[in-house]
Design a protein that fits this description.
Low-confidence stretches: none
Structural class: mainly alpha
Number of helices: 5
Distance between the termini: 29 Å
Number of strands: 0
Length: 120
């Protein structure tokens, strides 16, 4: 059990560092591009991992914990997404708010499906 926590923690640390890199590379302008990108990319990666794990029973639980729960969990930023959505509403940028929320949800689901389909 301790090994599982360490695998998730290590993956989460790596994912969090990648998330920080994205926020550095894609400075926050009028649209929260960094958060948008990591949520779409993270959704795609978790779809790949999930499909690969289903197809290959030998794909170790260790790798699934490290990649899906760890890296993807640390990399994606739903809490930041929620906060930024609220800030768009508080700034009365209603159109951008709806675009951000709907595009994030639809593209995130599509990216997860695509990742899953490519590995299936």
């Amino acid at each position: 059990m301790l090994k599982n926590f360490l695998l998730v923690g290590l993956g989460g640390a790596l994912g969090s560092m990648l998330r920080y890199a994205f926020s550095y590379w894609f400075k926050h302008g009028s649209f929260p591009l960094a958060t948008f990108l990591v949520n779409i990319i993270g959704s795609f990666i978790i779809g790949l991992v999930f499909a690969y794990a289903l197809r290959n029973e030998s794909f170790a639980l260790n790798w699934r914990l490290f990649l899906a729960a760890g890296i993807c969990g640390g990399f994606t930023t739903f809490s930041a997404f929620s906060l930024e959505s609220l800030q768009l509403l508080q700034q009365q940028r209603i159109g951008l708010f709806f675009f951000y929320v709907i595009a994030s949800l639809l593209l995130g689901l599509a990216a997860t499906w695509l990742g899953y389909s490519l590995m299936k």
